[in-house]
Specification:
Order of helices and strands: HHHEEHEHHEEEEHEEEEHEHEEEH
Number of helices: 10
Largest sheet: 6 strands, mixed
Distance between the termini: 69 Å
Shape: rod-shaped
Number of strands: 15
Radius of gyration: 33 Å
Length: 299
C-alpha cells in the first residue's frame, strides 16, 4: 500500500459515493463529471492498492476494505464539518470576550439601564467592564475599547459617537439655596460653597456655563474636592454646596425636589459619550454589536 499523496478531496469523493451509492449522484453533489469522479476513485484505489467498490452497471457497493475505510474516516470528517459549522456561526453571530473601560457617568447613564437587555440579546458575548474616570491607555492596559466624552478621546483612536450632546448644569439643595441665596449671574457662584471634582487627567474641573458668545468658564471656590459624581450629588442633596454635573446625572434628584437647577439659563452643552478603539481592521463582531446597541444618538 502506498498511502502517500492521498488528498483530502479524494477521500471526500469516496465518502460522497459511499453515502449515496452512485457515482452519478455523487458527481452532481461534488460539482464534477462522472468520468472525473470515476478516474479519481481509480487513482485512490491504486494508491491504496486495494479495491474499495464493487461496480456494476446497476449498482455500486462497498467492498470489505471500503466499509472499513468508511467506518474509520467518516467520524473525522463529520467532526471537521461540525467544527467548520461552528466557525461559521461564530463569524455570523456576535460572540467573544469584550473588555471595556468607561467613565462612571457613562456607566450610570448609558450602560446600566440597557446592560441586562444587551446580555439577553447576545448571550455569546462575555463583557468585562471596568469603571474608571481616570485617563486610561486602552491598548497597554488590555482593553478592546473605551467610553469617554467626545473631546477627550485619545489621539490616534477610532471614535464612534454613542449619544447626542449632553447638558451640563449647576444644582443645589433648596435648603442650601434658601440660606445662601440663589445666584443670578455666573459671578455669584464665586461667593458660594462649591463641590469641586477632578477630571480623569487629575486637574480640577472648570465650570463651563452658557453657550456660543454667551459663555464663560469659572474656577469656583470650594471647601471639598470629590472624585466621584455619586458622592458629590449626595453631598449636594445634603446641603453641602453647589455642584456642576450632567443634567441627566441629577435628573432623579431634580424630579423629586432634592435638588434644583441653579442659573438654568446658563446651561451649557458638551460633547456626548463616544466609544473609541485602536483600529478599523478586523473589528470584532462583539464590538460591532456593542457599538450599535448602545448608540442612542438621534438619527
Amino acid at each position: 500500500m502506498n498511502a502517500s499523496g492521498i488528498s483530502k478531496d479524494s477521500l471526500e469523493s469516496f465518502l460522497a459515493i459511499a453515502r449515496v451509492g452512485s457515482f452519478t449522484r455523487a458527481a452532481l453533489q461534488r460539482g464534477v463529471t462522472g468520468s472525473a469522479l470515476s478516474h479519481a476513485m481509480t487513482q485512490l484505489e491504486r494508491r491504496l492498492d486495494v479495491r474499495l467498490f464493487h461496480r456494476t452497471t446497476r449498482q455500486v457497493r462497498l467492498t470489505g476494505a471500503g466499509e472499513m475505510l468508511l467506518a474509520e474516516i467518516a467520524p473525522h470528517f463529520e467532526r471537521i464539518d461540525a467544527s467548520l459549522a461552528q466557525l461559521e456561526a461564530f463569524r455570523r453571530l456576535p460572540s467573544g470576550r469584550l473588555r471595556i473601560t468607561t467613565l462612571r457617568d457613562a456607566a450610570t447613564l448609558l450602560l446600566a439601564p440597557r446592560l441586562a437587555a444587551f446580555m439577553a440579546l447576545y448571550p455569546a458575548i462575555e463583557l468585562d467592564i471596568v469603571v474608571d474616570d481616570r485617563v486610561v491607555d486602552a491598548v497597554s492596559e488590555g482593553f478592546d475599547a473605551g467610553i469617554r466624552y467626545g473631546g477627550t478621546v485619545p489621539e490616534g483612536m477610532i471614535a464612534r459617537r454613542l449619544t447626542d450632546d449632553l447638558n451640563w448644569v449647576v444644582v443645589g439643595a433648596p435648603a442650601y439655596l434658601d440660606v445662601m441665596g440663589r445666584p443670578r449671574q455666573p459671578e455669584d457662584l464665586m461667593r458660594h460653597r462649591c463641590i469641586r471634582i477632578r477630571t480623569g487627567t487629575g486637574r480640577l474641573c472648570s465650570w463651563e456655563l452658557g453657550r456660543g458668545e454667551r459663555q464663560c468658564a469659572l474656577d469656583v471656590p470650594g471647601q471639598v474636592i470629590l472624585g466621584d459624581s455619586e458622592l458629590s450629588l449626595a453631598c449636594a442633596c445634603a446641603g453641602g454646596g453647589l455642584f456642576y454635573c450632567l443634567e441627566d446625572r441629577a435628573r432623579a434628584a431634580l424630579d423629586c425636589g432634592a435638588l434644583e437647577l441653579v442659573l438654568p439659563e446658563w446651561t451649557s452643552v458638551g460633547e456626548g459619550f463616544h466609544l473609541y478603539y485602536p483600529s478599523r481592521k478586523h473589528v470584532p463582531s462583539a464590538l460591532r454589536a456593542f457599538t450599535a446597541y448602545f448608540s442612542t444618538r438621534s438619527a
